Structure formats: structure tokens, C-alpha cells
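Anyone up for a design puzzle?
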């Protein structure tokens, strides 16, 4: 029987996924509309401005993609056996957003290239999160770990028009 997330945890996770997604859109809009002028005002040459805009764009796109992943995790029913794994995946997704996207945002806004050394740590957090989700998916619940839900096969009734014609309703 699915047990995670609980109603309270699901709403909490849903709320934080909404915050993450909203910030991704807001930051992305700034990157598209306000950032070029900000970088020009810093006195950067056009080639470096384009490089910084590209870096910012990568951070914003990955940020939004992982906000959607957080949203999916907030609605993901899972077994008790995988509850800890999914919780860690959720935490690692957030760590990835903060480290990967956050370091790129700061690198671009402050033109501080050494912050790029932090970015791969966020990527590693995301890789770990996705790996945990793969583990949860590829190692299904064993018989004793969960109550079996009855599966129903929907078949046409013997007397129905569908069974006679073979066409779906």
C-alpha cells in the first residue's frame, strides 16, 4: 500500500516544488530581460557577456526541469520500503538546484569564475538523486513488504455490444 508521501508531507513537498518552479521562472525571466543590461553595466566585453548569458541559461533550464521533478516526487506514491530512498532523492534534487543552478547564477551575477568549481557538485547531487529513483524503480516491493492490491482487467461483458463488434466504446 503506498505510504509516501503522507498528506502533510505531500503538501509540504508540493509547496516547495511550487517555490522552486516559481523561482525558476522568475530567475529565467530576469536572465532573458534584465541580465544583459546588468552584464553590460559591469563593463564586460561582448564575448564574455554571451558566455555568461549562456551559463545563466543552463542554470535556469536545469532549475526549471528539476522543479518539475520535485513536483512529480511530491505526488509519487511509494512503498514503505522505498520511502527513505525517495526522501533522499527529494533532498538531493534540492541540493542540486542550490549547488548547480545557484552557483551558476552567482558566477554570472558577480563575474566570479571560481564559483564554477561548485557547479559539478550540484550535478553530482542530481545524478545521485536520479540514481536513487532508478533503484526504487528497478527493485520493486517484495511480497512481504506491501499488501497486494488487486488488479482488475477491464474486459467487456459477454453480452455487451463491444464484445459482439470488437470495437471499443
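Challenge accepted. My sequence:
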Amino acid at each position: 500500500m503506498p505510504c509516501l508521501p503522507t498528506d502533510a508531507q505531500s503538501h509540504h513537498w508540493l509547496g516547495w516544488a511550487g517555490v522552486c518552479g516559481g523561482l525558476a521562472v522568475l530567475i529565467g525571466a530576469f536572465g532573458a530581460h534584465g541580465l544583459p543590461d546588468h552584464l553590460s553595466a559591469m563593463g564586460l566585453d561582448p564575448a564574455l557577456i554571451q558566455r555568461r548569458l549562456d551559463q545563466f541559461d543552463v542554470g535556469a533550464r536545469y532549475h526549471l526541469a528539476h522543479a518539475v521533478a520535485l513536483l512529480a516526487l511530491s505526488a509519487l506514491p511509494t512503498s514503505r520500503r522505498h520511502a527513505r530512498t525517495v526522501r533522499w532523492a527529494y533532498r538531493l534534487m534540492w541540493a542540486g538546484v542550490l549547488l548547480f543552478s545557484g552557483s551558476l547564477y552567482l558566477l554570472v551575477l558577480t563575474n566570479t569564475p571560481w564559483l564554477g568549481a561548485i557547479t559539478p557538485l550540484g550535478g553530482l547531487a542530481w545524478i545521485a538523486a536520479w540514481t536513487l529513483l532508478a533503484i526504487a524503480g528497478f527493485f520493486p516491493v517484495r511480497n512481504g513488504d506491501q499488501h497486494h492490491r488487486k488488479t482488475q482487467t477491464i474486459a467487456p461483458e459477454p453480452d455487451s455490444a463491444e464484445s459482439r463488434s470488437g470495437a471499443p466504446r
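A detail worth pointing out: The chain has a mean pLDDT of 84.
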